[in-house]
Specification:
With 309 residues, the chain is of the alpha/beta class. It contains ten helices and 14 strands. α4 runs antiparallel to α5 and α5 packs parallel to α6. The structure holds adenosine-5'-triphosphate (ATP).
Length: 309
């Protein structure tokens, strides 16, 4: 067992703190010295292309993979030295489920009840009911999607303080996917649980997350409140009838101007409504706010290089 070390300052207030967290497999650097703080009560989407290091990060946080260098604290506990405490308080859904094939949901319940002091039978049954899963069917007879549902029901009924979900909705049909996200959101609303969810489904992340972390080649290249990120990425598109105001780039709130003939895209900050009103005085053909969704933001900020998340 590793030495117990005092938590980093602030580590007890945040749900997750990573400091130079690194995992190497031979010459492969899976996770490359990440510094990352996840506030309590937040829902974070961990987004990045295949091989970015998302699963390895989550595995280090739950104590399944030992960091090569750096440290991490989950719920104020060192993930290496105090991994048992971390596991009891954290619900984890791996990318590939680790459910025993002979077990039924009922068997899993009996087992989990012994492991987790905060376990709720009622919540487990309620989640199974919502998914229409029978407690008596063995895992070996379940589809991949049904196994995902059982894994989520187990993670949620543990009533953890933190949920680490690795591509939780892969293999689910649209209806189950919606139910699934609702279960996660309910846990957040009811228990104030912190969630970190890796996903390639950006519209899904957008629906549930209030924070986003873009991961690429083992690094977190951007981490932000999602609304703040969207606000910072807002643009105004304006097509003037005549000449544009010559001092447009110096206007208050205009950060950058990209011009293509009479069409201009303004990168803006602050009061967008005031800028729109000022632009309207020039009687333009078009003046509109261009909002960005998470996919646009991914490709614009974290996704340089253009591979799919
Ligand atoms: P995906 O979106 O495809 O699930 P990911 O972002 O979760 O990808 P990881 O599974 O964390 O990425 O993998 C990061 C890198 O580490 C990859 O290059 C992968 O090949 C490598 N890697 C992961 N686990 C191991 C292992 N057990 N042994 C060797 N290399 C590994």
């Amino acid at each position: 067992m590793a030495d117990r070390q005092p938590p980093l300052e602030g580590a007890t207030e945040a749900a997750i703190v990573c400091q130079g967290l690194t995992k190497r497999y031979g010459a492969t650097v899976a996770v490359d010295g990440i510094d990352w703080i996840v506030p309590k009560g937040s829902v974070t989407g961990l987004v990045g292309p295949n091989g970015a290091g998302k699963s390895t990060t989550l595995k280090m946080l739950i104590g399944l993979v030992r960091p090569t260098a750096g440290r991490a604290w989950v719920l104020g506990r060192d993930v290496t030295a105090e991994s048992l405490d971390v596991r009891v308080r954290t619900g984890y859904m791996p990318e590939e489920d680790s459910l025993l094939r002979w077990m039924t949901a009922e068997d899993a319940l009996a087992f989990s009840r012994l492991l987790y002091p905060t376990w709720s039978d009622a919540l487990f049954r309620e989640t199974l009911d919502l998914f229409g899963l029978s407690p008596k069917v063995p895992v070996s007879k379940m589809s991949k999607g049904m196994r995902r549902q059982l894994a989520l029901a187990l993670a949620v009924a543990q009533r953890p303080e933190l949920l680490l979900l690795d591509e939780p909705t892969s293999g689910l049909d649209p209806e189950r996917r919606r139910d699934f996200l609702n279960v996660i959101l309910k846990s957040v609303a009811r228990e104030g649980v912190t969630v970190v969810m890796s996903s390639h489904q950006l519209h899904e992340v957008e629906r549930v997350a209030d924070r986003v972390a873009f991961m690429r080649a083992g690094r977190i290249v951007l981490e932000s409140d999602l609304d703040a990120l969207k606000e910072a990425a807002r643009r105004i598109r304006v097509v003037f009838q005549g000449e544009p105001p010559p001092d447009l780039a110096q206007w208050e709130g205009v950060v950058r101007v990209e011009a293509d003939g009479r069409s201009h895209v303004l990168q803006v900050s602050g009061d967008v409504d005031a800028l729109i009103a000022r632009l309207k005085a020039y009687n333009p053909f078009v003046v509109e706010v261009v909002e960005h969704n998470l996919e646009d933001l991914y490709f614009e900020t974290g996704g340089k290089g253009g591979t799919r998340p």
